[in-house]
Design brief:
Blueprint lengths: L1 E5 L9 E7 L6 E2 L4 E6 L4 E5 L4 E6 L6 E3 L3 E6 L9 H17 L1 H10 L3 H9 L18 H5 L13 E4 L5 E5 L4 H16 L2 E9 L1 H18 L5 H15 L6 E3 L2 E3 L6 E3 L1 E3 L2 E3 L2 E2 L7 H16 L5 H4 L4 E5 L18 E5 L2 E8 L2 E15 L5 H16 L2 H5 L2
Parallel strand pairs: 14-18, 18-19
Antiparallel strand pairs: 1-8, 2-4, 2-7, 3-6, 4-5, 6-8, 9-10, 11-21, 12-13, 14-17, 15-16, 19-21, 20-21
Helix pairs in contact: 1-2, 7-8, 7-10
Length: 403
């Protein structure tokens, strides 16, 4: 029995995806639920599993292809045997290898001398890479697929071939690559946000002394009890919830000529990955403890870096937080993540002169930025919102008494 491999549902309003990588080759044995390939949508990377145990019988859409929901990608044969025992598969592999050599004779011949894997040879040919310039890391000085991919910008490694421009000394001056689907989506959404919302940014500074002292005092006990470190982000998430409850327009969104006020708090936490910025959502944060917030953020961050975020992880969100401080950013004007109406930007902590009761002291200071949609959030509300966050962070005991 042969069972088709199809593109699964991709989420609300998402109809297309790009095949980033097949993990299995025709003729290879697979087990039910084993990952066969990866798909990249406008929001997340999805893994498509084998529907049955058997052998990958055919592939109908190659890496880099754009596919639609329910499209057939290939099939798995339940009764088929492995390629080594099946002459048809062996013949197909020989034909494919011959076709590859015919298409790229120079690079292929060079690769034979250098000992490169078939995948490495093909990628090098597609991207006009001379294998003699690639450092080999495989066994017996074999050039692997990974060795070749290192020569291409990481976030474009699975995209269309790169086009390079060289000078008279054959030195590469420029490299032109096609945007990944995720990168194009990020660009489109951010530009749409600027074109649609009346974005304004207000700033403030916050003395981090009290939070840093609290972390230092209770870090060991907190980590021992909960199995996770007490970070800065949980304090800011809790402070945001306090401010959102007081200024509900910041937790609202514009829908046509209506304003939707939300009485729940799903906070997006921006995470930088090799493929671009993603904003997974921590749900119902107002009901979570400090430890639960920290664990949720760590879990989502790890999934983001591994490319395992699901559509559910990315959907929704009423407000977002981005922390450029981890990269050393002093100040920025973050762009709203539509359809949300505001985003908080955190920055690096720097010791600065600070006036306390008429005296100049040195304190760890962080600059905060709140970008907001002026269509539904007035300046007074935005400033008050940011002041409330400042008050909670500078006197974190307010969280204990809910004031």
């Amino acid at each position: 029995m042969t069972v088709n491999i199809v593109v699964p549902p991709l989420g609300e309003s998402v109809t297309e995806a790009t095949i980033t990588k097949w993990r299995k080759k025709i003729g290879e044995a697979v087990k039910v639920d084993e990952i066969l390939l990866e798909l990249e949508t406008d929001k997340v990377t999805l893994e498509v599993s084998a529907p049955i145990t058997g052998v990958l019988f055919e592939i109908l859409a190659e890496d880099g292809s754009t596919v639609k929901v329910n499209q057939i990608l290939g099939s798995v044969d339940e009764k088929a045997i492995s390629a080594s025992q099946n002459p048809a598969f062996a013949e197909q592999k020989i034909t494919s290898a011959a076709a590859l050599e015919a298409q790229t004779p120079d690079i292929t011949k060079n690769a034979k001398e250098l000992i490169g894997s078939p995948a490495a040879i093909k990628i090098a040919a597609d991207n006009n890479i001379n294998l003699s310039s690639v450092a080999a890391s495989g066994k017996d000085d074999r050039i692997t697929k990974g060795d070749v991919l290192k020569q291409i910008p990481a976030h474009n490694a699975t995209q269309a071939p790169a086009v390079t421009t060289t000078n008279s000394n054959n030195e590469i001056r420029e490299t032109r690559v096609k945007m990944s689907r995720l990168r194009k989506t990020i660009a489109t959404r951010l530009k749409d946000s600027q074109n649609t919302a009346a974005i304004l940014t207000t700033f403030n500074e916050v003395d981090m002394s009290s939070v840093m002292q609290a972390r230092q005092m209770y870090q060991e006990k907190f980590q021992k009890k909960h199995g996770v470190k007490l970070g800065f982000m949980s304090f800011f998430v809790k402070a945001v919830i306090q401010a959102l409850k007081e200024i509900p327009s910041v937790n609202a969104e514009v829908s046509g000529d209506e304003i939707i006020y939300k009485n729940y708090y799903d906070i997006g936490v921006a995470v930088g990955t090799e493929n671009g910025l993603v904003v997974p959502i921590v749900r119902d944060v107002d009901s979570l403890s400090f430890a639960e917030v920290e664990k949720s953020i760590i879990n989502l961050g790890q999934k983001a870096k591994e490319g395992k975020l699901s559509i559910a992880d990315m959907s929704g969100g009423t407000f977002s937080i981005t922390n450029g401080g981890i990269y050393g950013s002093m100040l920025s004007t973050p762009i709203i993540n539509p359809p949300q109406s505001a985003i908080l930007g955190m920055h690096n902590i720097v010791e600065r002169p600070y006036v306390v009761k008429g005296q100049i002291v040195i304190r760890p200071i962080m600059y905060l930025a709140l970008s907001y949609d002026h269509r539904i959030i007035d300046g007074k509300e935005a400033v008050t919102f940011l002041v409330r966050i400042k008050e909670v962070i500078e006197t974190p005991e307010r969280l204990l008494f809910d004031i």
